[in-house]
């Protein structure tokens, strides 16, 4: 049961990437997603790939976790590759499939676009693999802090996220309990036509929602009793700190960006 | 004269205009550093009393004073600093994603500095016997452990009163025992007023004073021993007497005279084995 209760895909570890401030990770990944689209020749792709793979190896996350993250998008990557290969009509003709002529430029273009996808997914899944959901929440709260000036409810949003994270395992356990209770009363979740199986979910969802609302009400009361009155004047136990390693990684990344801008055509 | 910490003056409360009164003209006092147990069957108004003390509800009639301050919408944040509460459901009062985050929640609300939070965190987790669980997530804790965390988070902000509103009702007997032990330890080591609300007569044994509620009214008030001796009355208002009390009753009917109303096995045993030398 413990396996099912791991939230997100976080792989515990103590590497440089794990210990980076989550804000550093989020900002770098944010800009990385942009600059991937600036790459337009072999060397510019090479520099980005080296950066991404280097982060992967320093994180010491087993490769199979990355491959698992890539699984759902393999189809998309291959599809774009084929589409670009067929549609682009540049360079010299290489071979024919059915009525399409494949040009050398098309193959290159296909590779380039697939590479972009691959890099994007690699880097973003590296974030969720090395950062706990609660760290990401804290980082988002800090990063969105300036939006408070325009009355964006940053603190409330972060609190909502952290409470949801806290209650995911609780509600999962509850779902399991209710489904067992309903199964013992003869509800069949596993067999039968799809229509019946969908209907069987109703007696699962209704009690789950009822209890979730009840929980919410009690939680609100408990929070109030413990003196919660919104974000004003609140201090925090969890603390984010930009350290030497963060500055080092920022410098490295800026180096990569400058290098990329020089190399691209 | 001990100083009054909580005072209810002719308090009446109902949840809505058309609803029946949940509390009818209740008046009582609770003094500093005492342990008071409020007991009553379901719907006797005992949980409402707890919520009124914390400003989660306000009475329609009468007044409530906590440490001389009246409880009104303007003073609730002051009052909540003095009154800590532990609720019944261990899951629905756990706010943080880990034990330390949950214990810190109340301190964060009150704007404690980070260094202060860290020292208090260590202290209160030690007080409830859970220092090894700082980083543990709530779904890896048992109900009793969660309740101990809840007690720790209340202790962390050092209130004057701690109210345990049926805090052991959802636990197994072992968890219940450990919570009661934790509460006793805490009361011994800190100057704190304790208010336990329960429908279980077993839990009032260690209290200094007992308030029995029935149907929104104060039915009785006294030492646990005195309350236990009124078995017929207790049965009438729907409270089960503990086995030892029933046994003592039967012994008396059989003509065996006991020196006092026994509260537990040891007292009854003491009484019985010295019986021969007395007669």
From TrEMBL, chain A:
Q: Could you tell me which InterPro entries the record lists for this protein?
A: ABC/ECF_trnsptr_transmembrane, EcfT
Domain of life per record: Bacteria
Places the protein is found = Cell membrane
Membrane-crossing segments per the record: 28-53, 65-87, 247-263
Q: Which UniProt keywords apply?
A: Cell membrane, Membrane, Transmembrane, Transmembrane helix, Transport
User: What is the protein's membrane topology class?
Assistant: Multi-pass membrane protein
Per the annotation, which location comes first and is thus the protein's main one? membrane
Entry keyword Transmembrane: yes
Entry's Pfam families?
CbiQ
The family line of this record is: Belongs to the energy-coupling factor EcfT family.
Its subunit composition reads: Forms a stable energy-coupling factor (ECF) transporter complex composed of 2 membrane-embedded substrate-binding proteins (S component), 2 ATP-binding proteins (A component) and 2 transmembrane proteins (T component).
Q: What does this protein do?
A: Transmembrane (T) component of an energy-coupling factor (ECF) ABC-transporter complex. Unlike classic ABC transporters this ECF transporter provides the energy necessary to transport a number of different substrates.
This chain belongs to the protein called: Energy-coupling factor transporter transmembrane protein EcfT
According to its UniProt entry, this protein's organism is Virgibacillus kapii
From TrEMBL, chain B:
Family, per entry: Belongs to the ABC transporter superfamily.
Query: Which controlled-vocabulary keywords does the entry list?
Result: ATP-binding, Cell membrane, Membrane, Nucleotide-binding, Translocase, Transport
Indicate the transmembrane segments per the record.
none
- Superkingdom of the source species: Bacteria
Compartmental location: Cell membrane
What is a GO molecular function of this protein?
Answer: cobalt ion transmembrane transporter activity
Give the record's membrane topology. Answer: Peripheral membrane protein
Name one cellular component (GO) term: ATP-binding cassette (ABC) transporter complex
Q: SUPFAM superfamilies annotated for this entry? A: P-loop containing nucleoside triphosphate hydrolases
InterPro entries noted in UniProt: AAA+_ATPase, ABC_transporter-like_ATP-bd, ABC_transporter-like_CS, ABC_transpr_CbiO/EcfA_su, ECF_ABC_transporter_ATP-bd, EcfA_1, P-loop_NTPase
Instruction: Quote the Pfam families the UniProt record gives.
Output: ABC_tran
Q: What is this protein called?
A: Energy-coupling factor transporter ATP-binding protein EcfA1
**NCBIfam families documented for this protein:** ECF_ATPase_1, PRK13635.1, PRK13648.1
Q: Which PANTHER family does the entry mention? A: ENERGY-COUPLING FACTOR TRANSPORTER ATP-BINDING PROTEIN ECFA1 (PTHR43553:SF24), HEAVY METAL TRANSPORTER (PTHR43553)
Positions of the ABC transporter domain: 6-240
